[in-house]
């Protein structure tokens, strides 16, 4: 990118490259859902109570975010028992992993461009 393009993007009449924020997925990008997916990607499955505490959410709020992710096929919900106590676990799906990686790639590109622009000034 020339200095002129940095000062006045679009001055040369060229179409802009897709901006990295265009790659962000609203379903994934919401901070609590991003947290759920990130934690779930680190383990085989994660207990809902752990997510609630780690992300500082109410049970109802967490339930709503998990429902959005489940409807998008990004996580699976597994219900069962640990001893006599009922438990609910979340497992990230393959589609969830791909969506999380795409989100992180878009954020990395956004950060790279921001740092590059900052270094030029």
TrEMBL record:
Keywords: DNA-binding. GO terms for molecular function: DNA binding. Gene3D superfamilies: Winged helix-like DNA-binding domain superfamily/Winged helix DNA-binding domain. Residues 33-111 form the Winged helix DNA-binding domain. Signal peptide: none annotated. InterPro entries: WH-like_DNA-bd_sf, WH_DNA-bd_dom, WH_DNA-bd_sf. It comes from the Bacteria. Residues 1-10 have a biased composition (Basic and acidic residues). PANTHER family: BSL7504 PROTEIN (PTHR37318). This is Winged helix DNA-binding domain-containing protein. The lineage of its organism: Bacteria, Bacillati, Actinomycetota, Actinomycetes, Micromonosporales.
């Amino acid at each position: 990118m020339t200095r002129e393009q940095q000062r006045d993007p679009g001055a040369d009449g060229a179409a802009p490259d897709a901006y990295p924020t265009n790659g962000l997925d609203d379903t994934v990008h919401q901070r609590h859902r991003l947290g759920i997916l990130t934690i779930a990607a680190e383990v085989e499955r994660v207990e809902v109570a752990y997510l609630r505490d780690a992300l500082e959410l109410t049970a109802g709020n967490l339930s709503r975010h998990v429902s959005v992710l489940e409807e998008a096929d990004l996580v699976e919900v597994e219900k069962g028992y640990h001893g006599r106590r009922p438990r609910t676990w979340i497992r990230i799906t393959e589609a969830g992993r791909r969506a999380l990686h795409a989100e992180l790639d878009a954020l990395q590109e956004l950060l790279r461009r921001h740092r590059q622009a900052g270094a030029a000034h």
